[in-house]
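Record now logged underneath.
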Amino acid sequence: MSINFHPSLLPKYFGRCPAEWALLNQEKETGISLIKMNQAFDQGDVLVQKIVPIKKTDTRETLYKNLYILGARTLIDTLPKIAQAKLKPKPQKGIPVPAPKITRRHGYIPWKTLKGFLQAHLQKKPIPPPKNLLIKLRALNPWPGVWTTTPDQKRLKILSLTPKITVQLEGKKPTPLNEIKNQLFKN
């Protein structure tokens, strides 16, 4: 029997980027699946599934780390049962939800969404960041990252909001936002 590990609760988030999509869709939990492989991609019968809560502090990196550790431990615990035929594979339950490849466009946030937040921060009158900014920072760093296009058509990546806002202007090194404020807000 061929076995596959997948870092999601199949059939939800089958495909390449399950943790990213779980974070982007603000799921409260995800998990791991060990499946009996068949000819269809991520569609084999389930041997074992384990649920993992998604913490508000989880990023794609921390979530994958937790899922892979749990997957490895589960595989070690499960292999003897599989070898002794003590586990009966069961069909996947639920509606399949794809987790397609993440592309650069997924990290885009319009300038008009970010402008007020960035200006308020520079004026030391911080306002809460746009919700989609926080969600995308958790799910899409380091790649493709969260980015916008400035009024002069340069790409600006938002790298971090803590402890201070760190950005990277196209062709430049990462820098604190206040060091490039004159380039961004010329008025």
Notes: The mean pLDDT is 95. The first helix runs from residue 18 to 24. Strands lie at 3-6, 12-14, 29-36, 46-53, 97-98, 146-149, 155-160, 166-169, 175-176.
